[in-house]
Amino acid sequence: MITRHFIDIDQGGNIRRVHYRKVGSGPPLLMVHQSPRSSKEYETLMEKWAAHFTCIAPDTPGFGQSDPLPGHPEIAEYADAVVDFLDALGIKKCAAYGFHSGGIILVTAVKRHPSRITTLAVGGYAIWTPEEMALFSDRYLPEFHPSDYGEHLTWLWNRILEQSWFFPWFATDGAHRLSVANDDPARVDAIVREMLDAGNAYQAGYGAVLRAPRDIPAVDADVPPCLISAYDGDPLQEHIDRLGDMPASWKAQKVVTPADHQAVSLSHLLATETPMVDHLPEADDEGFVTIHTEGFDGLIHWRGDRIGNTLALHAPSYAATGNQPAGQIAIDLPGHGLSDNWPDDSPVAWASWDAVIAAIAGELGTSETIYPRPTDGEPEKLYPDLSPDRFGNYLITAWQIVRARHMFAPWYIVDIDHAIAFDEKHLEPRNLAAEHLALINGHSARQYHIALQSRQKEN
Length: 459
Prior knowledge:
With 459 residues, this protein is of the alpha/beta class. Helices cover 32% and strands 17% of the residues. It contains 13 helices and 13 strands.
């Protein structure tokens, strides 16, 4: 089972938090994701490779749940951040794998810190021509900020949708068509959520990669072995021919399918011995606990005072955020925030939720629980179906809900009799963006609401 963790990196008194996923046994394998994704994109691959390695996949700075780097970092800072992460975990040497921009970061890390990586596998390595760099210019990475009425969501959906149709995504002409075009809402939604996590921080990480020098180590460089491979349909496959001369231990290979790429990468990584590691440390004020009950089996996110005695529950469609009062631990319940969803249909019986809450309290050592009061209204109307659709309508629907619920109670009855007082600050786009993300992540909000209502009746 993949577990999730946080670790703090202290850089001259400035604390930067990193979120990472881990699974498997064996020597450590550092897996660096592409931009603007997160370590979540590696979950399936991590499970495949867990029999051979202890797979460790961080969210790179500014992506997923990791804090961004300060200032205006370039590729060297992102490469050094990888090594800082290894230092925080106490890992002296590891194997490494990176796809696309993750590979750029790792090749830079190898050049700057060659003794820390035992062997490297890369999926697609970009060598841009001057003409291609000119095409990217400023259009590839526009600023991305939430807007009052959710206009940014329409742009985001279409930008992510069409990046599988054209490369670059804005070059909508025959010369830039891709052979792997799709309109799968689930695939688009996965990247959309990661962009919403990153916000405008995506510019820094992605931009540093695009601006990075494309200098492969010199032929006589003392660096660990590396395999660069790319499959049919990957826009970087043709870049294999642009790599030029490489160190003797470096190889490049074109393959047919993504599975072929993974197979040759694994074979390459296994060919070099990497030392084992002991227990990995983690932060003491935020993390995940594994919970097993009759209806739930997964990870629950918590944050706050780890020795606290009080467990704080959020309302339906919200999540645990911010600093917690002393003595208190906030959690994301199943199907909310960063916690796993229910494996089957989310239950409406309070007993199922109560069993999970009791198990969490036992794991975290709390004896008191703060319960929320459910919002007035009909659950079916309060929490409409927000499943991803082909046109991204669910994103706009959710944005309109989080705006309206600050002005009316319940939000779906808009008249003077249901108008409520509100703080204008709550309507600032950055505040609405946090609520919006919590709402679309609140997969079991309706069922949790019904369960809370039944608890109220019982009490």
